[in-house]
Amino acid sequence: MDMSFDFDSVTERRGTMSLKYDSAPRRGKPAGILPLWVADMDFSTADCIKAALAQVSRFGVLGYSEPDEAFHAVLRAWFARRYGYSLQAEWLVQTPGVVSALYTAVRALTEAGDAVLIQSPVYYPFAAAVRDTGRRLVTNELVLSDGRYHIDFDDLSAKIQREKVKLLILCSPHNPVGRVWRRDELEGIAEICLRHGVVVVADEIHQDFIFPGCAHTVFAALGAETQNITITCTSPSKSFNLAGLQLSNIIIANKALRRAFRAEIGRGGYSQPSLMGLVACRAAYSAEGAAWLEALLAYLGGNMALVRAWAAEWPEIRFIEPEGTYLAWIDCRGLGLSPDALAETIEQKAGLWLDDGRIFGPGGEGFQRLNTACPRSVLAGALERWRGAF
Description:
Elements: H1 19-22, E1 34-35, H2 47-59, H3 69-83, E2 92-95, H4 98-109, E3 115-118, H5 125-131, E4 136-139, E5 143-145, E6 148-150, H6 153-163, E7 165-171, H7 183-196, E8 199-203, H8 224-227, E9 230-234, H9 237-240, E10 248-251, H10 255-267, H11 275-284, H12 287-312, E11 318-320, E12 327-331, H13 339-349, E13 352-353, E14 355-356, E15 367-371, H14 376-389
Parallel strand pairs: 1-13, 3-4, 3-7, 7-8, 8-9
Antiparallel strand pairs: 2-10, 5-6, 9-10, 11-12, 12-15, 14-15
């Protein structure tokens, strides 16, 4: 097995129909701006995945496809080996992406006007999935204390009771604040939700991006009762840069929840998943894919170290130490700028396209989210431009 991996080479993505690089003018951004916003990586995916896709392309028959036993076996082995979680093939449902799964779950398990709770600041499609479906958004804001985010359990419990919350969308690991929730924190959420009959949709798409000293706990693995109220959303798309192949694996042990979820998928007209997505996922979760991922995690750790050192030399900003994901959450409130002035300076003077913290909801004002999943030379240049603009 070739154990050498190249994450330093810069791949030219402009002109490839890339959302990240080619959509700037359509979205009101300056041409030539350096995009470090949307969470896809600038790295070429693992060779084993490219080889598997090339083999299918050479075969040339790209018809309707469904997961087979080999696909299910690879998924079971991945989750058992990395997370100690035993899943069964019948629990798996495929969707084009995790965001589509969030919308599906909200429509399938709640009615118009029902309350759905999210923990902000959080990945902005969570709020969109609630508002766009006519549900009522309830927010349990995370608390930043001593440079680390915590769950306000008293507020969580009170709001679930007062607002009669039906569904909680959990981000684990958390995007954008970078927390990898400890087991006892997840148990606290589970206890409250079990007590009040709340279903949990756990977005665990960043589960493979865990930094040393932390461990990801599958929410559904907390016990049979918790598993029975959980829809777990996973995908190889973040870990292996495969978002364009449109495949997510949704794990639902509870038959009634799974039946309702599948029925809602059917009402949307979706049936068989992407063949290329299935093939890429099976290759990603192989031994070769795991080796590539481990090398990637080490490289991303070096990128985070670069951001940490950069922030340490700039007293007015604060780097929120991530425990997981490849997204750096930067507290810029010490600069004393309005959110509009902050965003304008970064975009117009630094020439950087980041994600403004305001889009993540309450608690995000004055923050910026920086995607570090790019060659280190690109990241170093971006940080220099950012600092120079101020």
